[in-house]
Predict the 3D structure of the following.
Amino acid sequence: MKDITIIGAGPAGLFALFYAGMRGATAQIVDALPEVGGQLTALYPEKYIFDVAGYPKILAKDLVRSLREQAAQFNEPTHLGQQVTALREENGHFVLETERDRFPSRAIIIAAGIGAFSPRRLPHAAAQPWYGRGIYDTVTDPQDYRDQRVVIIGGGDSAFDWATQLAGIAAHVCVVHRSDRFRAHGATVALFQANVEAGRASLYTFHELADVIGHEQGERFSHIVLRDVKAKTTCEVEADVVLPMLGFVSDIGPIGEWGLTFEKDEIVVNQVMETGRTGIWAAGDVTTYPGKLKLIACGFGEAATAVNQAVHWIYPEKKVAPGHSSNMAIFGQKDD
Ligand SMILES: Cc1cc2nc3c(=O)[nH]c(=O)nc-3n(C[C@H](O)[C@H](O)[C@H](O)COP(=O)(O)OP(=O)(O)OC[C@H]3O[C@@H](n4cnc5c(N)ncnc54)[C@H](O)[C@@H]3O)c2cc1C
């Protein structure tokens, strides 16, 4: 039985895990993804973040590493690869259930972000067998694509960010998009165009994937077929790797059935992050209230508020106000 179970190991959830330890509460975190970090790990590990207090700039993956280290001081468990599917109340405490486990807990903090999410897949039947064998929907290390012929499908920020980054690493980068209007930032598109002019990249507008042509032995593909959506013609493009950057689908899933008040997919909370159901608080992107900003910096503050409230609710003798960490015995700096 833990004092607090946190749903979601994004930045808000990881900071909540640390904060619970700092307040002397036992805690655990459960996340559907195989790694901690939420959107930072799954969607933009190699991008710099410029608006986290104290860091002029920091790679998303490095911020996650620091958050993980900070939380690890208290040796509380992180349960990964498990989506929370049900919430029960038993004998005055909560039990969160996943497909393979049960997590009893006195209080709950929901830090589920935009829900359990997954990259939007290419709809083409021809693409499905190649997922994991040349078609990848997340980029973990750009060096994996050194000297490869990379095709990126999409017209948003992720497509053009990765296209410009990979242009200096891959043998060739080709961006394919169904129209000539891009959601990506104009400056990034211009940077990519410069690569096209320099012969390091190519851009196919009004095209979509039509087929994938494999090597004879079936290990990897060698070409893809593109269809011109206007002219209805097709052409072949040499490719070792296809990176669909089509956004992602997210699903708040069963949390939507726990009797909480939602606006769209966000949980309505008050100024102390209470959800309206006793014993359950929320923090981070999953919350909404007047003036809400979906930013990492705000998620940290919300996590601290939620944990302090939960700790006081579980142990009324513990004050809501935590005191200063710079003067806490738990860190060995108490000066009295
Ligand atoms: C491309 C991009 C760039 C960004 N750049 C910035 C920036 O520069 N500055 C900034 O402040 N913000 C930025 N953001 C936004 C920032 O990433 C989010 O505000 C932040 O990730 C929210 O953190 P979170 O912990 O609330 O949720 P998330 O990061 O979304 O993490 C939520 C976690 O909960 C898990 N989860 C959900 N439901 C369940 C369930 N039922 N069971 C188990 N686990 C579950 C998910 O798997 C996920 O890991 C950016 C976002 C994107 C997409």
